[in-house]
Write a structure and sequence with these properties.
The chain has 450 residues and is mainly β. It has 6 helices and 29 strands.
């Protein structure tokens, strides 16, 4: 989506057809005549559904339509003095662009008084509604993102933990599905941190870019920023730590202690989380309800986080060459399991016979392995798979189920080696073709195994 910005006419004559200047995130003053023309640029997709003032009683906003230059113009007319913000919002109420507007009093208004509370850190200002009993009093209240009702540490009601998650789940009030927080966003040793500002960025990428652009402070505490995550449902910090999310971390440590008492091998959701602006689609293991304990590592041994070799191999070899963004789930087989493999090598008869004779299948790699190295197959008994073999694979095999737009198949990997042990237990290949293939692989020749 293009960058949406507020603009003002910049030409000497104030013409709406002339040059403009971007005024988003700036402070502007209402002209003495009490009328201002402000435009919106970059909204060719029609994402802005409303342009409103934080104090509607101080300002009238009229939509004048869109000019030939693609700028949507508004007339802002003064009603009484004040300090307010003009917001462009989408259909969900999210602010896409904004600027501050100072409306100075006329000579007969009397000087306005602004009640400005004190704060010790970065903050956001909101203009409260006017009090008719005190017409010259502008009431301002201060808020920080961590005080917002949507801040994830405030909305957290429980933590789900499982070592195969490579992170943890945050169960939040008002959300049907939990939010996934990967290990890459967690720093359990961070006890002092400060936000770079009081702004809530639209994405983690914007928040991280703002951190890099912020002035460096030698010897100061670690810096972080706030952003909208989980599809905009929550406000999250760029790092989860005792300093930024104390309730979540305290509950997380409790969940780890609980998990240490048992071991589960269950289907585990990977690769969908707060980073991508989505929520996890499956929850695994037990949930520990919210805790307000000390957000620091308690004494005692935490659970071991060593992954089974096949899971580690699936994790490190995962790719997405076609940018399909599959939902991945992982398990390690504790007993033999059967899958359906479509024979694609030519001739199929020889392919069947080689697999039967060798008792194994070679792993797909490189450009033929769209989602990572391994043997690709369908779930058992899948219809319409062409010429297929049903293969039984042994315990210890790593199984990654790939779900793309409702279509599921699996990537199979042994703990080590470049072949997967298999046993053919079924096929739809005619018996005559099977016998022909067996004869082919047993014929002497430089490219055939005797």
């Amino acid at each position: 989506m293009a960058v949406i910005s507020f603009v003002l006419p910049s030409g000497d004559d104030g013409s709406l057809a002339g040059p403009t200047k971007v005024v988003s995130q700036t402070r502007q003053t209402m002209p003495d005549n009490g009328v201002m023309f402000a435009g919106l640029s970059g909204d060719s997709g029609g994402h802005v559904k409303a342009v409103v003032a934080t104090d509607p009683s101080a300002l009238t906003i009229e939509d004048l339509g869109t000019s030939s230059a693609g700028i949507r113009w508004f007339r802002l007319t003064r009603r009484h003095p004040g300090h307010l913000r003009v917001d462009a919002k989408d259909h969900r109420g999210f602010v896409l662009a904004a600027f501050l507007l100072i409306i100075k009093p006329f000579s007969n208004d009397g000087p306005p008084v602004i009640n400005l509370p004190k704060a010790s850190g970065p903050m956001e200002f909101e203009i409260d509604p006017d009090d008719a009993r005190h017409p010259n009093l502008i009431n301002v209240h201060v808020s920080t993102p961590k005080d917002d009702a949507d801040y994830i540490d405030r909305r957290m009601t429980g933590i789900g933990y499982n070592i195969y998650l490579f992170g943890f789940h945050v169960v939040c009030s008002g959300l049907e599905l939990p939010v996934y927080v990967p290990d890459t966003l967690v720093d359990l040793s961070l006890t002092k941190a400060e936000p770079i500002d009081g702004k809530v960025y639209d994405s983690i990428e914007q928040a991280q870019a703002a951190i890099r652009a912020a002035p460096q402070r030698a010897g100061g505490p670690a810096r972080f920023a706030y952003y909208r995550g989980a599809g905009g449902a929550v406000i999250a910090p760029t790092v989860f730590s005792p300093a930024t999310t104390p309730r979540i971390i305290a509950t997380y440590f409790g969940a780890r202690r609980l998990y240490a008492t048992y071991v589960e091998n269950e289907m585990v959701g990977l690769a969908i989380g707060i980073v991508g602006g989505l929520v996890i689609r499956a929850i695994v293991g037990r949930i520990l309800r919210a805790s307000n304990e000390d957000p620091f590592e308690p004494p005692g041994n935490p659970p071991k986080t060593t992954l089974p070799p096949a899971v580690e191999r699936l994790k490190t070899t995962a790719t997405d060459l076609q940018n399909k963004n599959p939902v991945r789930t992982v398990e390690v087989l504790t007993k033999p399991a059967t899958f359906r493999h479509t024979l694609t090598a030519s001739p199929q008869q020889m392919s069947y016979a080689r697999i039967e004779m060798e008792g194994s299948m070679r792993l797909s790699t490189g450009g033929n392995a769209h989602y990572g190295e391994g043997v690709y197959a369908w779930p058992a008994n899948r219809p319409g798979s062409g010429t297929y073999i049903d293969i039984e694979v042994p315990p210890g095999t790593g199984v990654e189920t790939l779900n793309v737009a409702g279509t599921k198949w699996v990537r199979l990997l042994p703990p080590q080696g470049n072949t997967l042990p298999v046993r053919i237990v079924g096929t739809n290949m005619p018996k005559a073709d099977i016998e022909f293939g067996r004869k082919m692989v047993r014929l002497p020749g430089p490219s055939r195994k005797p």
